[in-house]
Amino acid sequence: MFRKVLIANRGEIALRVINACRELGVRTVAVYSEADRNSLHVRFADEAICIGPPRPSDSYLNVPAVISAAEIADVDAIHPGYGLLSENANFAEVCRASNIKFIGPPPEVTRLMGEKEKARQAMKKAKVPILPGSDGVIATADEAIEVARTIGYPVILKAKAGGGGRGMRIVRTAEELPNLFHAAYSEAANAFGNGELYMEKFIEQPRHIEFQILADEHGNVRTLFERECSIQRRHQKLIEEAPSLQVTPQLREEISNTLCRCLSDIGYQNAGTIEFLMDEDRKLYFIEMNTRIQVEHPVTEAITGIDLVKAQLRIASGERLDQILPPTVELRGHAIECRINAEHPQKFTPSAGKITVFNVPGGNGVRVDTAQYAEGVVPPYYDSLIAKLITHGVDRAEAMSRMERALSQFVVQGIDTSISLHQGIFQDEDFRAGNFDTKFMERFLAKRQG
Question: Could you read off the pLDDT of 241-278 as tens digits, one per residue?
Fold first, then answer.
């Protein structure tokens, strides 16, 4: 096991990694921007190093600053968390060149899975079902029209190097395609420095299902069930649960076996998540892979009893999966996660500022992952996520009732939060019955406004 690990992140995930390291007897080094000087991950790490001004580009995304901190602190490894540098293949290569272990997949695999069209082709080759789409990057709007005619409308344009809904446009007719193509290209180029686009068939009312995997450095891959992530707004997830109500044991086994074979073949290592869309016939289609720990990993931990961050550390230190996981991982009950964001629950505008009251819920089956506290400050420079509220029960009904109770006891004052939005969702009849898809929030918000 490593002697000392630097956490190249902030907020709740940095604190989460610190906790896992402490349980394994590993010393930790926090890096922080000037805006995060009083953050809990700085307080609870064994060492802390300031790496720059508040803006992410000047601090958390500043690769030379992060590597310098790692060398000054003489660490063995770097855990990137999620977001920021976690899927940056160049950063992983710099770690390798600096003789610092990057706790994640090899840079070559990160690069392969990060380019969505290459990832599609790799999955297609392994017989993982993918949506009908272009055979690579589309160079012009005229070419896009020809491809769309072959696929059939509606189609969706996606950024080759993208994520989070940027560089993405839904196209329903040939007439609107040229303008949308140029808009998607410009947005992708501005967001990612790469405007290249590819095209897929668009499913009107899909469910968003993802499979959690762990892979060791000896060619072994295991899946740890799936998560349902269909409750999202503008492609940003709000609520996740595990397992999905729509995935049958037979479908779970078929997809899991295919994924394990495919990821072993490409040399995948560490934690990862493979995301799918499910159509009305319950068929799954691969859309992308996230080569890191996910925000929603706690729901998988709840239904499996597996600490995924500790597993990441153990895999990166060379252990085999059969040393980390039991021969059979049993599915235990149901878990739900609400992302508590610092934003107005109706306008969805960010809400930075000082927290005056911060009371987190507790009790049976309730977990809160957060790095916030009363009198703490939410800076305006970063993602709006301030806490993750997770509940676990013997079934979905119990997990839901615990979530409703926990939301009522979660008190945050001084800033706006999404708590009341989540309370409204949990009172919605369609959500309670499991009748939802990725368009649920559009219908829910329309009902509220009507």
Answer: 999 999 999 999 999 999 999 999 999 999 999 999 99
How far apart (Å, rounded) are the C-alpha atoms in residues 318 and 339? 33
Q: Is-contact 342 415, C-beta < 8 A?
A: yes
Q: Tell me which H or E stretch contains 272.
A: strand 270-278
Is residue 353 located within the same domain as residue 432?
Answer: yes
Number of domains in the chain: 3
Same domain membership, residue 278 and residue 420: yes
Concatenate the DSSP letters of all residues of 125-137 into one string.
Answer: HTT--B-SB-SS-
Range of the structural domain that residue 37 is part of: 4-101
Domain boundary, last residue among 164, 181, 201: 201
- For residue 106, being part of any structural domain is answered with no
Q: Which residues are catalytic?
A: 292
Note whether 67 and 75 are within 8 A (CB). Answer: no
Give the mean model confidence (pLDDT) for residues 411-416. Answer: 98
Whether the Cβ atoms of residue 298 and residue 390 lie closer than 8 Å to each other: yes
Distance of alpha carbon 246 from alpha carbon 438, whole angstroms: 14
The number of beta carbons lying within 10 Å of the beta carbon of residue 64 is: 9
SS3 for 267?
Answer: coil
Residue 12 is assigned to a structural domain of this protein = yes
Amino acid at 353: G
Query: In the block, which residue shows the tokens 């307080």?
Result: 43
pLDDT in tens, 156-209: 999 988 766 788 999 999 999 999 999 999 999 988 889 999 998 999 899 999
Which of 172, 201, 230 is where one domain is finished?
201
